[in-house]
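Service request form, structural biology core

Requester: graduate student, group of Dr. S.
Request type: structure prediction, single chain
Budget code: on file
Notes: please return the result as structure tokens.

Sequence provided:
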Amino acid sequence: MTNYNGQGSLSLLGKVRMGFKQSKPHPIPLLYKERGNNSPKFTSRFTVHPSPKKRTAFTLAEGATRVALPNSQRRAAFTLAEVLITLGIIGVVAAMTLPSVITKYEKHEAVNRLKKSYSTINQALVFSQAENGDFSEWGIERQEADWDNYQDKLSKLVKQNIIPYLKVLKDCEYDKCKDAADTTFRDGTVSRWYGNRTHYVIYLNDGSRILFFINNSNDNDGINRWHELVMLLDINGDSKPNRMGRDVFSLYLYADNRKVNMYGTSFSREAMLSNCENYGSYCGGLIQTDGWQIKDDYPW
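Core staff response, request fulfilled:
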């Protein structure tokens, strides 16, 4: 029953009772929105979850070709012209420096291969002479040139006294390697590695090849005599350039010196340099004399 006071209004007790009857309980929220900084957060009694970024879709106005971004979203970049100019500069520098770099590498590689091959051949012939006697006993030193038996003498010398002491990949003899590349001297002279009945050819396992022939000259008495075993060493086999002083070098074995010598070492440096420029036989001797290096005046 509702109670009224003297003025016809609800009594305090009635208001209280009525409020309890009409109002509904408000539960403690488990999740409510909290605003702060730049990103709203949804906060609960347990965790805080950043809200996902809001994505906005828009359409370009008619006639518009680009979107102007706020300064905070702009990034610095190179233009196409700047990139092309930079690439052009790099190309010019490379064109100027690359040839010299390649040449320097080729010289370094040639010297290393020549020095290694020289050491290998020299060691092999020293061992051979220790077992087979001095070179003067091999049947050609200071003997009168017997051209009718040249091939037999050279073949016997190479097969018995040289090949057993080297790692030989292929024994071409005089005419078994038809694809053997020829060697060009500085004056244009060509030395044939196949089809020349005086050139005995072998290929080694390290990729090099050697051409042997017996050199001759006339003594004071006018008699033509054999006096040295000459070798053309091609440090990279049939690969180009097959040119004297670049990848082909001359060596010889002489009775007065039991070791292999680079051709030209008995002459002055000026004489070796002149021969290397005009012919090529003394280029290896020039490299050896200069301490196994190719100096700036070497005719590369």
